[in-house]
Amino acid sequence: MSRLVIVSNRVAPITEGKPTAGGLAIGVFDALKDTGGMWFGWNGEIDAEPAIAPEIAHRNNVTFATVPLTRRDYNTYYRGFSNATLWPTFHYRDDLTRYQRDDYNGYRHVNARFASLLAPLLKHDDLIWVHDYHLLPFAQACRQIGLQQRLGFFLHIPFPSPQVLMTVPPHEALVRAMCEYDLVGFQTEIDRTAFTDYLLRFAGATMNGDGTITAYGRTLRTGVYPIGVYPDEIQKQATARATVKHILDLKQGLQERKLIMSVDRLDYSKGMLERFRAFERLLELWPNQQGTVSFVQVAPPSRSDVAGYGEIRRQLEAEAGHINGRFSDLAWTPLRYINKRYDHEVLMSFFRASQVGYVTPLRDGMNLVAKEYVASQDPADPGVLVLSCFAGAAQELDGALIVNPYDIDGMAEALRSALNMSLSERQSRYESMMGALREHNLSTWRDRFINDLRAPAAATPALLRCAQPAAA
């Protein structure tokens, strides 16, 4: 069987037996361990000079091939085009997008350099699986140096509608480069439709009878592969740390109050400001909730050197201070906003201790936190998930209370419903969602993509079996 080669922007440090928060890291590492393979990408370090060759390490039947970035490459490829242009645009925040041609040139340069550094390590029958928005043109860079291996790409974040994508000046070049992949995968049918819509409307593409699409002289396949979690493993994590100091401190601070729990990276796409305002509205509209419920938001900082992230942190701190100043008394602080990291097992224990999971991104490719919240619950007394309709997970988790994060009153009403929901209804919703999590777990996501990438083009109908309907 052909060897699997994973290419991602960052090669996650994996220590077997220790928890890791990243679904991508878990799924990729398991796939590589099963068959033996290689994981290639940035090691997270900045060096003065570009690498001549990757640093090679071997662990658990997996070869890790990693390279540093130069300061210039980090600024243009990572901070610049990837996270100041693509990230906000793909999350429908074109108002925050910053485009500089030099950043785009740096983005293409790093993709080409990654391809040239990977090439000497490849075997002719390798299967190459490329991940996420940092590497949209990676296949094109590979083809330009003569690589003919099968190349698949999976986008972990949303793919924007054509009108939004076209706000990025080199949009046509990016989509043309994506067509050099043999298979392009998305989290939801909505994302796949946005991609094919661009090709059909603006690239003169043809949709073929076998489900493939021909554009820019290439025929490729697309598929929908919602990423999952390992729910039974999360259940174990949620109960493993029940007596750890963080959990005991949390429960002592609650003093029998109900808990609304949120965990997010500090990012403007997560809708935390709107979430805070909806919690404030809950306390306004239903004063009997004051003193009976606490809201904990854990938001570890990320990408602090990317423009825009300092501002969202200032806004959240101001809003948290406003809410606490307005409603706190000597015995109760309604909102605890925490900028620190916790181990994954501790976070799962926090989820299990809460009555409401509050997951309301303005836009998200999937949102594994929503799935982790459900999986961490006590089946005998589960909490309720309040979930944004703009998270990919909303198409699978039919037992959640689905909200529009731009509707502050609507979110407040959902919080009240969640806090007062009967046990029988909570259990029914939980069981429905756990069934979906087990059916479409992380292994299912991984194996479906790899099998479809390995299959000949005529096997396209297999891609459609798990396609999700577009949200109404």
Automatic annotation (TrEMBL):
<protein>
    <recommendedName>
        <fullName>Trehalose-6-phosphate synthase</fullName>
        <ecNumber>2.4.1.15</ecNumber>
    </recommendedName>
</protein>
<dbReference type="GO" id="GO:0005992">
    <property type="term" value="P:trehalose biosynthetic process"/>
</dbReference>
<keyword id="KW-0328">Glycosyltransferase</keyword>
<dbReference type="GO" id="GO:0003825">
    <property type="term" value="F:alpha,alpha-trehalose-phosphate synthase (UDP-forming) activity"/>
</dbReference>
<comment type="function">
    <text>Probably involved in the osmoprotection via the biosynthesis of trehalose. Catalyzes the transfer of glucose from UDP-alpha-D-glucose (UDP-Glc) to D-glucose 6-phosphate (Glc-6-P) to form trehalose-6-phosphate. Acts with retention of the anomeric configuration of the UDP-sugar donor.</text>
</comment>
<comment type="pathway">
    <text>Glycan biosynthesis; trehalose biosynthesis.</text>
</comment>
<comment type="subunit">
    <text>Homotetramer.</text>
</comment>
<dbReference type="InterPro" id="IPR012766">
    <property type="entry name" value="Trehalose_OtsA"/>
</dbReference>
<comment type="similarity">
    <text>Belongs to the glycosyltransferase 20 family.</text>
</comment>
<dbReference type="Pfam" id="PF00982">
    <property type="entry name" value="Glyco_transf_20"/>
</dbReference>
<keyword id="KW-0808">Transferase</keyword>
<dbReference type="InterPro" id="IPR001830">
    <property type="entry name" value="Glyco_trans_20"/>
</dbReference>
